[in-house]
Write a structure and sequence with these properties.
The protein has 119 residues and is mainly alpha-helical. The chain is built from five helices and no strands.
Amino acid sequence: MRWAATAAAVEAAATGLILLLAPVLFGRLIFGAELSEPGQALGRLTGIVLLGFALTAWPDPSARSVTRALLAYNLIAMLYLCYLGVAGILVGMLLWPAVAVHSVLSILLGSAWRAARMR
């Protein structure tokens, strides 16, 4: 399931690029709200972190530590975004699709991580 880790790394890199280049657009689409200037700065910093995180999977996306880290990121992101949506705090038009993407990636990465542990 090397492709699951690759897909998760691509998602993290894409999210990182969007946050780095257009944090206001990200805030509008995911949260349905405008980001303040400090929010934009934090969004850009988060984008840099996500890009660096995605690059950890570049040489070998199937490494157990990479799969475990990507699983943790996707699972925690899915839970937090789901909380925001259910609470109705910040809901943009792409919030629920983002929850779905993180859910699918969590399931795929969980399966890959479990299979690697069985070996």
